[in-house]
Amino acid sequence: MKRKALLVFLIVALVALPIFSGGGKEVKSTEKVIRIAEQVPGLITPGVWDGQVFSMNSSMYEYLVEINVETGELNPVLATEWSTVDGSQWIFKLRQGVKFHDGSDFTSADVKFSLERTQDPKIGHLKKQDFSIMSSIETPDDYTVIINLKEKRPTFVYLFTDYNMAMLSSEYDYANLGESKPMGTGPFMLSQYIPKESVSMVKNPNYWDASLPKLDKILIYFVGDIDASVSMLEADRVDVVPFLTPVIKSRLSKIEGLSVISPYQEQRFVAMNVDMKPWDDNNARLALKYAVDPQILAKSVTQMDLGAGAEYNETPIMNMLAEYKDIPLRGRDIEKAKALLTEAGYPNGVKVELYYASDHPFGKEFAQTIKELAAPAGIDFDLKGYTRDVYLSQYWLNVPTSITGWGGRIDPSMLLALAFKGDGPWNESHLNNPKVNTLIEKITGESDAAKRLEYYHDLQDVFYEEGALLNLQVPYLVGINDRVIDYKQPLTMLPQYKYTDIK
Amino acid sequence: MNRTLSIISKRLGSLVVTLAVMSFIIFMLVEIMPGDVAQMILGQSATDEAVAALREARGLNDPVLQRYFRWVGGVVTGDLGDSIYMQGVSINSILWRKVGHSMILALAAFIIFVPLSMFFGVLAGVKENKPTDSIISFFGLATMALPEFVSGVFLITIFGVQLKWLPIVSVIPIGESLFSNLEILVMPAISVTFVMFGYVSRMQRSSMIQVMHSDYIRAAVLKGMPRKYVIFRHALKNALLPTITIIGMNMGWLFGGLVVVETLFGYPGMGSLLMTAIKTRDVPLIEACVLLITVIFSLSTMLTDILYSYLDPRVRLQGGQK
Predict the structure, then answer these.
(1) Does B177 touch chain A (CB under 8 A)?
(2) d(CA A103, CA B304)
(3) pLDDT over 50 (residue B322)
């Protein structure tokens, strides 16, 4: 009996030993590898890509230009130079010697293909509207592209910074291979892709800039649960975790060797639909603006102070941009808000629905805080939270009040015509103010930068007085291991891992 | 033997019917869920035109019954279709890898909880109303009442964060296999054991008590047989029957129902895949996962019945009389 017990013990010990000794296992290698935990992606082919797997796509694909994180200017990437006389014709000179990962040359035919692809109705390209102003594309030689526009667009080049505007090979079957074997000219090439599980990318040995990338490999884990991703960061299983919440930021900030950075901000708009009551009266809109205390709002939603991670204004222009006009905050004044609401015809207050995407970062917190802040002024928000797809497909654009998340644009005019002009397809507030419409037209067509800035300032004044918008700018938070050097991610949301190094 | 064949053929027949009904119900349930998968894929920047183009490309504009029967036709020929999200990536290539992972996790949990809970169940049964019984029963109740996400966090905190014995997450490092990272199975398996231990040990305990109080055991004891001999040779086989039923009934859950455990530990199994599929409304993937879980449930129940009839001659006899 004792011998049997001893035998069982030995077997158990033999099995358990390798298992339990694995807790602190570390891979020792001379390769420079960065490990990332990201959301499980939806579609990954540029054009119909909603922005997941930023790390994968920004490393595998490339763009004509990129944002310089330090200066905010445009860096040449696949285009070495660009010029326009009056904004109606654009000439791009392309970088020579660039090769796709399959060995084929990158030429003007590929740029033409990528641009024409935006207008292909079968693809449903998300930039179709923006690029519909193109009238023709000429490719006089392999390294020159001339784009003629239907109207003047002095800031047209900024459209090429959008994450869906990666340059694709005209010879590659993206329709069938884009989701399984994605391929571009980027600094990293696909090595292994396990759908819904992970991606492994290796340094592109033929990259046009011989000094880049600094890393040898990028490993991306697709993890459905943000808490599991954070645990991986804490356990040193990954080096980068994007899309953190402020609560997780507080938790990670206490752990040695980890940092939470905010490379850029996103916008959360409260849109008041001026076609619906009570927002059809500007006094009611002003009442809400006076009811809001921006500092409390920022602190409550983002756990950060105004100016220290969060920003607020009542216009479509982000505070961080050069076009922003520094209009002083109006300050909370409940009595004035009540008086304005009375003037609008609601002396006993008003009940109004507020729709939001409850599963979108900051959505729930924003809705609840606005409700609390507006209540003393007599505005009783009836909160209607739905999952993001339900919110977008069933309610967005057709409700009295809504909270929607918007990425920032380095050129704010990219969003103005779409979301703030009277006939814009994403005009949430339905504001059709002639002054606003005229100023947006002037901004998009003006070549003189000084004049354009003047128009931007005028536009912000109009929004301050008559607009139907509250704009809270919330931090995009990324948790990183302190070994990561030069993590760069501009407002375009695309991380620039080619510059990143690891200790 | 005839009885066994009869059970198998009946069960297989009902399995086909169950699968047909289940697949239809799931298809319809996802269909009536609010929201739109194309909108979900394309997000906020999607214009109506982009949504329409994607719906057309993925065949989502076809009538629901047409889509359902197209999908059924594929399944019959072994083609589970493509994930809505990944044109050119077959579900077969996504699913089976995850199924393999889940089976390994289920096996690991099975190896831990079955002998453990049976042993302690028998021990509690033969020590009825003694302190050993009370302790085992209390522990069984406590673990049964603890949801997996609580026991999981508990385990992570102790063994992962404090003692650093085991990895906090159960992710397979990229480029490595599960077999070279078996330590990632330990915590999820213990978490599952926590849930199963209570059920199985309590069932084992009560059936053991029942058997130990039966006349033939009393007769054996009175005959002067050694207690250990009575327990292991006479009582245990009969006391195992209800326990085997419970274990068999839970095999389906072990393979496909580990959604919480897999999500909590980040384990790349079928449970977490199903969770992702549901969150993203990936209908073909949801259907594939649910069908597979149904098959496993049905097969495990069938195997339990067969095993039961083998262990209990009365069941076989009843079958023969019929």
Answers:
(1) no
(2) 57
(3) no
Does residue A421 have a pLDDT over 80? yes
Asked if residue B187 lies in contact with residue B105, where contact means CB atoms within 8 angstroms, the answer is no
Please, is A446 exposed, middle or buried when counting C-beta atoms within 10 Å of its C-beta (0-12, 13-18, 19+)?
A: buried
CB A501 within 8 A of CB A217: no
- List the structure tokens of B143: 């673990």
Structure ipTM = 0.74
What are the backbone dihedrals phi and psi of residue A440, each rounded to the nearest 5 degrees, phi first? -65, -40
Burial class (CB in 10 A: 0-12, 13-18, 19+), A499: middle
Q: H or E segment at B57?
A: helix B48-57
SS3 call for A287 = helix
Q: Going by C-beta distance under 8 Å and a sequence separation of 6 or more, which residues neighbour residue A117?
A: A47, A123, A125, A168
pLDDT, tens only, B227-265: 888 888 888 888 888 888 888 778 777 776 688 888 888
| Tens-digit pLDDT profile for residues B262-278 | 888 888 888 888 888 88
Quote the mean pLDDT of chain B.
Answer: 81
Q: Give which of B169, B177, B180, B281 to mutate to test A binding, by max A Cβ within 10 Å.
A: B169
Q: Which helix (H) or strand (E) holds A472?
A: strand A469-481
Mutation target to probe the A interface, by most A beta carbons within 10 A, among B51, B159, B171 is B171
Residue A195 to residue B186, Cβ atoms within 8 A: no
**Residue A194 contacts by C-beta under 8 Å, 6 or more apart in sequence?**
B97
Q: Which amino acid is at A135?
A: S
Whether chain A has a CB inside 8 Å of the CB on B102: the answer is no
In the predicted structure, residue B291 carries a pLDDT above the cut 50? yes
Nearest Cβ partner of A221 from B50, B174, B280? B174
User: Rounded CA gap, B141 and A388, in Å?
Assistant: 40
Task: Count A/B contacts: CB-CB distance under 8 Å.
Answer: 182
Assign A142 a pLDDT band (cuts: 50, 70, 90). Answer: very high
Confidence of residue A21 (pLDDT cuts 50, 70, 90): very low
Count CB atoms within 10 A of the CB of residue A95. Answer: 18
Instruction: Check B47 against A425: CB less than 8 A apart.
Output: yes
Q: What is the pLDDT of residues B147-180, one digit of tens each?
A: 888 888 888 888 887 888 888 888 888 888 888 8
Structure tokens at A380: 């009783």
Chain-chain contact of A122 with B93 (C-beta, under 8 angstroms): no
Q: Which of B11, B171, B53 is nearest to A198 (CA)?
A: B171
Residues of A in contact with B57 (CB under 8 A): 122, 124
The distance from CA B255 to its chain's CA centroid, rounded to whole angstroms, is 4
Helix (H) or strand (E) holding A241: strand A240-244
- Residue A10 has a pLDDT of 44
Q: Do B83 and A229 touch (CB under 8 A)?
A: no
* Matching residue, tokens 């003006």: A446
Distance CA A149, CA A133 (A): 5
Residue B221 contacts A where some CB pair is shorter than 8 Å: no
CA distances from A463 to A277, A307, A471 (A): 19, 21, 11
Question: What are residue A90's phi and psi, to 5 degrees?
Answer: -120, 135
Minimal CA separation from A202 to chain B, in Å: 12
